[in-house]
């Protein structure tokens, strides 16, 4: 494992399962359980990681390793269940919340897939769970598409026999870890640039330093900005899960009229949701108050696309929940994101991530676990946007209607929002600690209200008459109230 993957693995604990997930809904009728199993068996040769389990190196002399599971049984990983027919969104969300809130068996390959029947209109669903140490969001989307087709009449290869490689002994694991520790610095030295490249690097370093110097004042400002720390705290074993949606056309309309990027508009709509939540709790204490969210950023290059490791960094964005003006909130978020883009272009983020490869595995394990147990107060949420396909997808000839992302919570952060785009729809999957967020529907409804609020501003700026305004996604019941 890489150091980053090892961090996700070590972060796993009784109350903090570290898998990512999704719920995909399809047109009916549902395929048989056997058909789903055979489809996955035909795809598994393309993703050997799904037949591997984690082996820790004795005495933690090295990072955990992936080894073939000699007892791999796909019938354990593919499950079959149903909701009382005709099941609606609420029944599916409740089921998915229970399934996604349960830990994976860490002694087996770290994934599960659930076939769900009984949905209204003859529809069915797939609930997927994959541990974060296996793939990040972008790579995970690529891997999940292996079971999807662009053609409803696509055919699939027959499953092939598989023979696991021999499980290495503890002595072999230790020997490999010692060899890796000795040779990794040498590989780094052999990759050092020549004189000409060094001169270019010095010039680049000068510009990088200037960019970082401009960024430092903003980071210092974040340190003294009041955050909604009531959202931080202990995480229990249970989860609440809610979702809402909007259309990509809505976000593009706001972007065109008010500026920024689609991601800036998304974060501004989420800001409205947290503002409503804190206002409803009587905790909107200042117009300077922010909810600081971690926004994962993929640093995966095109040449690394599809590789089975994590290539992610993160930025911390202050959502100005205390600001009553939505236009001002958008400007604030846009300014922060522009600054982060300049900083990340100036810094070799992949190289910084790779520095973790030189941290002693035992120290990495202790550091991650101690940090997860102690919690933190720096940020209050995680918000991640995973771009999906703009073309229809099919599984066993059945068209996917919608998909919702599930992002784990850990380290004192008791709420996460996973955004997933498919065709012209963007869905927001909200995962929250059960005890800390009895009002999670306020967040899902608030996102929808935030979208509507920004659309009103955009159409007012363009002079669009109110009666001609098209409608967006369907509001949740909380939004209707």
How would you describe this structure to a colleague?
- The protein is of the alpha+beta class and about 475 residues long.
- It has two domains: about 5-175, Chloramphenicol acetyltransferase-like domain (Chloramphenicol Acetyltransferase, 2-Layer Sandwich), CATH 3.30.559; about 225-480, Chloramphenicol Acetyltransferase.
- The chain has helices at about 5-10, 35-45, 75, 90-100, 135-145, 170-190, 195-225, 250-260, 260-280, 325-345, 350-355, 360-375, 440-460, 475-480, and strands spanning about 20-25, 50-55, 65-70, 80-85, 110-120, 125-130, 240-245, 290-300, 310-320, 380-385, 395, 400-405, 415-420, 425-435.
- It has a six-stranded mixed β-sheet. Strands 7-14-13-10-8-9 form a six-stranded mixed β-sheet, sandwiched between helices.
- Helix 8 packs across helix 9, helix 9 crosses helix 10 (about 325-345) and helix 9 (about 260-280) crosses helix 13 (about 440-460).
- The longest helix is centred in the middle third of the chain and has 30 residues, at about 195-225.
- Residues about 135-140, about 190-205, about 300-310, about 350-360 and about 465-480 have low confidence and may be disordered.
- Its EC number is 2.3.1.20.
- GO terms for molecular function: acyltransferase activity.
- Pathway: Glycerolipid metabolism; triacylglycerol biosynthesis; Lipid metabolism.
């Amino acid at each position: 494992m890489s150091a980053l993957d090892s961090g996700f693995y070590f972060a796993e604990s009784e109350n903090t399962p570290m898998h990512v997930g999704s719920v995909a809904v399809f047109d009916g009728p549902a395929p048989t359980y056997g058909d789903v199993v055979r489809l996955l068996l035909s795809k598994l040769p393309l993703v050997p990681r799904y037949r591997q389990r984690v082996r820790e190196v004795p005495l933690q002399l090295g990072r955990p390793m992936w080894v073939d599971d000699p007892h791999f049984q796909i019938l354990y990983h593919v499950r079959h269940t149903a909701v009382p027919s005709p099941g609606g969104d609420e029944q599916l969300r409740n089921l998915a919340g229970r399934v996604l809130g349960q830990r994976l068996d860490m002694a087996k390959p770290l994934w599960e897939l659930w076939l769900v029947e009984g949905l209204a209109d003859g529809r069915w669903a797939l609930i997927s769970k994959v541990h974060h140490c296996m793939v990040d969001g972008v790579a995970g989307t690529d891997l999940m598409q292996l079971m999807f087709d662009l053609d409803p009449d696509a055919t699939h290869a027959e499953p092939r026999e598989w023979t696991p490689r021999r499980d290495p002994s503890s002595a072999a694991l230790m020997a490999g870890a010692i060899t890796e520790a000795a040779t990794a610095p040498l590989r780094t030295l052999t990759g050092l640039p020549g004189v000409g490249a060094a001169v270019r690097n010095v010039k680049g370093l000068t510009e990088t330093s200037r960019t970082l110097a401009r960024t430092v004042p903003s980071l210092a400002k974040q340190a003294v900005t009041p955050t909604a720390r009531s959202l931080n705290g202990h995480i229990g074993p249970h989860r609440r899960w809610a979702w809402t949606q909007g259309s990509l056309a809505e976000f593009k309309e706001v972007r065109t009229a008010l500026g920024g990027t689609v991601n800036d508009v998304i974060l501004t709509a989420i800001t409205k949701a947290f503002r409503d939540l804190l206002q409803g709790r009587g905790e909107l204490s200042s117009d300077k108050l922010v909810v600081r969210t971690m926004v994962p950023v993929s640093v995966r290059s095109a040449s690394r696309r599809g590789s089975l490791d994590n290539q992610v960094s993160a930025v911390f964005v202050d959502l100005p929940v205390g600001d009553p003006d939505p236009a001002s909130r958008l400007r604030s978020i846009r300014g922060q994101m522009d600054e982060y883009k300049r900083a990340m272009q100036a810094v070799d983020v992949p190289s910084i991530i790779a520095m973790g490869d030189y941290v002693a595995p035992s120290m990495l394990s202790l550091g991650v676990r101690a940090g997860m147990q102690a919690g933190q107060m720096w940020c209050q949420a995680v918000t991640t946007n995973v771009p999906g396909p703009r073309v229809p997808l099919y599984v066993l000839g059945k068209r996917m209607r919608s998909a919702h992302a599930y992002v784990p919570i850990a380290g004192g952060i008791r709420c996460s929002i996973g955004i997933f785009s498919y065709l012209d729809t963007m869905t927001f999957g909200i995962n929250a600690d059960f005890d800390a967020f009895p009002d999670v529907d306020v967040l899902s409804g608030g996102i929808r209200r935030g979208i509507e609020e920004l659309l009103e501003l955009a159409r007012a700026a363009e002079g669009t008459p109110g009666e001609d305004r098209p409608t967006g996604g369907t509001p949740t019941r909380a939004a209707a109230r």
